[in-house]
Amino acid sequence: MRCQWAGTDPLMVAYHDDEWGVPVRDDRTLFEYLTLEGAQAGLSWMTILRKREGYRRAFHGFDPEAVARMTGADVDRLVAEPAIVRNRAKILATIANARALLAVREERASFAEHLWSFVDGRPLQPGRLAVGDVPAETPEARAISRDLKRRGFAFVGPTIVYALMQSCGLVNDHVTGCFRYEPLSAR
Description:
The model has no long low-confidence stretch (mean pLDDT 97). The protein is an all-alpha fold. The protein is built from 10 helices and no strands. It has one domain (4-185): Endonuclease III, domain 1 (Orthogonal Bundle), CATH 1.10.340. Helix 2 packs antiparallel against helix 6 and helix 8 packs across helix 9 (158-167). The chain starts with 9 loop residues before the first helix and ends with a helix.
């Protein structure tokens, strides 16, 4: 069995089967997910998955150093770019988040180390029985959200942060009957 939310679209199924919930400890990949989760606010995840390659091109393969150097002219260009969500606030947030991520790196060994510190370095294993048991946010997500906002990150409310935690494996929210639950609960 697969988590019901994955549906039958091949792109969504591949995302569920191969990526969602797999622990990520790489800053660049975490920045990618942070960007995509923020872009998804108010939209469907399917919309974002379909635009993912456009995001990779627009934001230098999610290289935080390159994104942090982007200028107002880059923002103006991206607002007209149909391959991404053309929302000025979300584009500006991506650039601000790259800069904030680099500041976290200056303080800690990595952005990944910082995020994982909120879950003691190990994925949370809540053991949800059904999709309806999955919350929109948790105390850990609220704590990360507060911390990131304090550090200058944008589009990091607790719901977005919880989605980030799920996608990057800080929490294993595959339902217990899903074939991905067991392999990811052993990490």
